[in-house]
Design brief:
The protein is α/β, with parallel strands linked by helices and 327 residues long. An 8-stranded mixed sheet has the order 8-9-10-7-11-12-13-14, with helices on one face. α5 links the parallel β5 and β6. The chain binds NADP nicotinamide-adenine-dinucleotide phosphate.
């Protein structure tokens, strides 16, 4: 039987997510919910979803919804995840999972207590090129991986009250974008022993630019997130025997370049691994697979992975003196 999804918060990412959801077999979008009934109706009509609710609570009360996708601003992930779990739903919650590690711990505890599946929607983890890159690293094709250079930066000119810059929403580049380069370094170099970070801030207090250096037992990562410029968005992974470039935009990459050989002679191979849809399909398939096999967390992007990532953003925030007003 198909897994029935319910979507909460019908903004930008929910529109992208549902288009991929409709590509995945054995899943259906059963219901959508917005704080506005009109918006929910319009969204439901556009994507032919059978049920539209004008409140999130109404969707959570629908006994037919198996799993809820939470696509609301960062600062509300914690509350909506707990409510969904308490209503007996499985949950896929957008990144950042929550605004700090303390919230993530409570979300995980609740999922374990309720015996419900819970995963952070860290879609890059399931991207085919990223997965292939992980395989190459595990096979030792790059030798010892010891240096990562990755950023995530767009030029944006958002108004101060926007989700990007509003501190009540935990706005700023770190939680919006910086989680991606942190994820890459964490996956390939492991948990860091030292973290150094610097930042520039908007007048709202939101971080506009964050530079991060991580030192782990295996090597060093040089990372950056920002709203003040557009970078080439290529992620670079270096080892003793070669390197991989994840092509732009690397967090949703459709291909890679592998270069093997660190002396004068080297071999280079470029390949395309196009995603099904935009690429949310893979995290949706992971949820499906976990639910079908009775798993309460993904092994590929587990509760511990999310917790480690949240601890990392907490450490960066400590270094740059970033606190949200509601904490
Ligand atoms: N995985 C990715 O690639 C990716 C990309 C973009 C964003 N995201 C994540 O997804 C989340 C949503 O981002 P978005 O770009 O979709 O944001 P958005 O366009 O602003 O949409 C967020 C939605 O949340 C709902 N909401 C609930 N409480 C709200 C409040 N107090 N103020 C404003 N809206 C509220 C609204 O839906 P209703 O009006 O329908 O209730 C709103 O449309 C963020 O946490 C972001 O980090 C992930």
């Amino acid at each position: 039987m198909a897994i029935k999804w319910g979507l909460i918060g019908l903004g930008n990412i929910a529109h992208q997510f549902i288009q991929d959801l409709l590509l995945v077999e054995k899943t259906t979008c059963h219901a959508v919910a917005s704080r506005s009934a009109d918006k929910a109706e319009e969204f439901a009509k556009r994507y032919q979803v059978p049920n539209a609710y004008g409140s999130y609570a109404a969707l959570l009360a629908d006994p037919e919804v198996d799993i809820v996708y939470i696509a609301t601003p960062h600062s509300t992930h914690f509350e909506h995840t707990l409510r969904a779990l308490q209503a007996g739903k499985h949950v896929l919650c957008e990144k950042p999972f929550a605004v700090n590690a303390n919230q993530v711990k409570k979300m995980v505890t609740s999922a374990v207590q309720q015996r419900r599946f819970l995963m952070e929607a860290f879609w890059t983890r399931f991207n085919p090129s990223f997965e292939y890159c992980l395989e190459l690293v595990e096979q030792g094709v790059l030798g010892d991986v010891n240096y990562i250079n990755a950023d995530f930066t767009f030029f944006r000119n958002d108004p101060p009250e926007s989700r990007m810059l509003n501190m009540d929403y935990a706005g700023g580049s770190l939680l919006e974008l910086g989680v991606y380069p942190l994820f890459l370094a964490y996956m390939l170099l492991g948990k860091p022993r030292e973290v150094k970070a610097v930042a520039h801030f908007h007048e709202t207090g939101a971080d506009l630019q964050v530079g991060i250096l991580l030192k782990s037992d295996r090597g060093i990562a040089n990372l950056y997130s920002g709203f003040k410029s557009q970078s080439d968005m290529v992620a670079k992974i270096y080892g003793t025997k070669g390197r991989i470039y994840l092509e732009p935009y690397w967090h949703e990459t459709q291909g890679y370049e592998l270069v093997v050989g660190n002396d004068g002679s080297y071999q280079s191979e470029k390949a395309q691994l196009p995603t099904k849809g935009k690429g949310f399909t893979y995290e949706i398939e992971e949820c499906l697979q976990c639910l079908q096999t009775g798993k309460l967390e993904s092994l590929k992007w587990s509760h511990q992975h999310s917790l480690d990532l949240a601890k990392l953003t907490d450490t960066v925030r400590q270094q740059i003196g970033l606190q949200y007003p509601f904490e």
